[in-house]
Write a structure and sequence with these properties.
Blueprint (H helix, E strand, L loop, with lengths): L1 E7 L6 E7 L13 E2 L12 E5 L21 E2 L8 E8 L3 E6 L5 E2 L3 E3 L5 E3 L4 E2 L7 E4 L4 E4 L2 H4 L15 H8 L4 E3 L10 H15 L3 H14 L5 E2 L4 E4 L2 H11 L3 E3 L6 E3 L9
Parallel strand pairs: 2-5, 3-4, 14-16
Antiparallel strand pairs: 1-2, 1-6, 4-13, 6-7, 7-12, 8-11, 9-10, 12-13, 15-16, 17-18
Helix pairs in contact: 3-5, 4-5
Protein name: ATP F0F1 synthase synthase
Organism: Flavobacterium glycines
Length: 277
């Protein structure tokens, strides 16, 4: 038997039973063996997943996954209780937990036409949309959590926010005050979005591991690939006045720009993955 349950908001371990059936709620992908350790710098291919192995031994794991599944413990959800749902979870094949975060757009309350049997307009019969592929899959037999997008699972596994490595206000301000940056047009830490804060965190780590001579090389590299960033030879600084300026500066620090051997095209790498020597 396969089960669909719903986690209640603002509770530690309260779940409702939505339904049980012989058929799977989600058909699982066949590419779960192709996993990558989570890296904010890496963009997954279509057939890849991020995976956290030994998941039950991490701080990210939730209580549901550390206890035996017993459907008798869960009360049947009422039709008026879906707005109190935080996420949905299925237990399938006695091995897989499939998670989908809940957003109000998952519920459609518009008129719709039933195409089973005689066409009929349905009114005041809202429907809940389930994704084809869940936001996360936990497989007991491998003790691995599989996911595609970290932002989709942070409401389900709150502790995974540690993986974000988003720069704090202090770290952001310190980075913007670096000796090689000149802020203009009123740009400051309050104007730095989440994406750039994560990039700043990576850049801080990268710079900490560079020798001074390498930093000079990086500056020359940025000047070459980012002519839109005004550079002061007198003060040895890049002028940063927008989010786009900041993003390109960090891409330069991370050496994301490259030129193809054939065609001499200048390109930006959307993601990077270190190759084994």
């Amino acid at each position: 038997m396969n089960y669909l349950i719903a986690k209640k908001k603002r509770t530690n371990n309260t779940y409702y039973l939505v339904l049980s059936q012989e058929d799977r709620v989600y058909e699982l992908p066949n590419d779960l063996l192709n996993i990558k350790a989570y890296d904010t710098n890496y963009k997954l291919e279509d057939d890849e997943w991020f995976g956290i192995q030994n998941f039950s031994n991490t701080d990210y794991c939730i209580q549901l996954l550390t206890q035996d599944f017993n459907s008798a413990e869960y009360q049947q959800i009422g039709n008026n209780q879906y707005n109190a749902v935080k996420f949905f979870c299925t237990y399938q094949d006695d091995d897989d937990y499939c998670f989908q975060k809940f957003v109000y757009s998952n519920i459609i309350s518009s008129k719709w036409i039933s195409l089973s049997g005689e066409p009929e307009i349905k009114v005041n019969e809202p429907i809940l949309i389930l994704k084809t592929i869940p936001d996360a899959i936990y497989r007991k037999s491998t003790d691995t959590l599989y996911f595609k997008n970290l932002s989709d699972i942070k409401s389900i596994f709150p502790e995974v926010i540690e993986l974000y490595k988003e720069a704090t206000d202090e770290e952001t301000e310190n980075f913007l005050n670096s000796e090689f940056i000149n802020l203009n047009d009123g740009f400051d830490k309050t104007k730095v979005n989440t994406a750039n804060r994560k990039r700043i965190s990576m850049a801080i780590e990268t710079l900490a591991n560079l020798e001074e001579e390498h930093k000079v090389q990086i500056h020359n590299y940025i000047k070459d690939y980012c002519p839109e960033l005004e550079f002061s030879d007198e003060h040895n600084t890049f002028s940063i006045g927008t989010e786009e300026h900041l993003k390109n500066l960090i891409f330069g620090i991370e050496q994301r720009f490259y030129t193809t051997i054939v065609g001499n095209e200048r390109r930006l790498a959307n993601s990077i993955s270190k190759l084994q020597n």
